[in-house]
Mandelate racemase/muconate lactonizing enzyme family protein (Saliphagus infecundisoli), 382 residues
Amino acid sequence: MEVQSIRAIPLEHSLSPGSAFGGTRGVTETRTATLIKLVSDDGTVGWGEAFAPPRTVAQLIDEEFAEAVIGLTPWDAESLADDVYTGTIGGYHFGRGPFVQSALTGIEVALWDLRGKLLGKPIHELLGGRSRSSVTPYASTMYITEWDQDPASPMQEAVEEEFTAAKIKIGRSVEDDRERVRIAREILGDDAPLMVDYNGNYTVSGALESIRAISEFDITWVEEPLPPEDTEGYRELGQKIDVPLAAGEAHFGRFEFTDLIRSGAIDVVQPNLGRCGGFAQAEYIAQVATTNNVKVRPHVWNSAVGVAAALQFTATVPDYPQRADLANEATLFEFDRSENPLRDELLTDSLDPSDGTLSVPTEPGLGIEIDESAVERFAVDY
């Protein structure tokens, strides 16, 4: 089996006027993704997602990746990252950049999807076996909105949808942070995992003040309180608080993740399976994390393809240092609750987080079936 064709498909869904939402670093008016479609010489199709501005990364794939990918086999997936880092694809000076890493990820995931379909096995089996058959989805919700939404409303919706854990956006001010966390905890309940996401909007002193102000609400982890490049700040902050620190959604490739994990700056690492480098790189990141006793909980804010990839990866993440039969902590998995038809409408059977669980797909490859008519409905020119 060899790759006969590659197509990068930028997708976009525009929100209605006045409906922009996001976090402290800004709001978005669109939901986007770039799907990668590989077709093999026997007609098998492999899918991946590059999680980056769609027109830009699609053009990059056409110009720098397409020719090199034609003729590859599904067993070339692991070596693709090295080809990028050494400059065989994309040029030596650019291999570590976010757009190149995102393009690499989408193509690499699609190669694994082809491999799984060829062998008749889900990707998690090809990555070394399944540690779990399901995860606990947490509602990623209570966004910063341009219409000044009542923060209680989305949290109440999450509870009605039977989510038993949640992550909310904070980071505008200490007073606002505390009030939003108070509301979330009151609605979610005392025992449910509750995470907070600052999107890197504070300095060390600001983050410290905020974390101390919300500490009474039993926070499971604090996500990106500082800019992603401030590794020393994370180390300093971690020495002054007793809440786990999480980061990684804005990191790219194994070198950045290795530095982040080995620095001792974080307790939870969050690679995104649309831009971390692909499955092989994610497995390496998980090994480095396990070696340094750091938890792995992927960042997931993708289309349905990226969600499926993250599920396949999460199924393989060990419970180390706990024994699997004695693990006493749920494997939390991010499930965005904002408007996104690219997550909800691209599959013939949507991923279902109801009842407080989300099953890992067991069909070959990513375990999903793409509705190509829906893909074309959201596709945009570039």
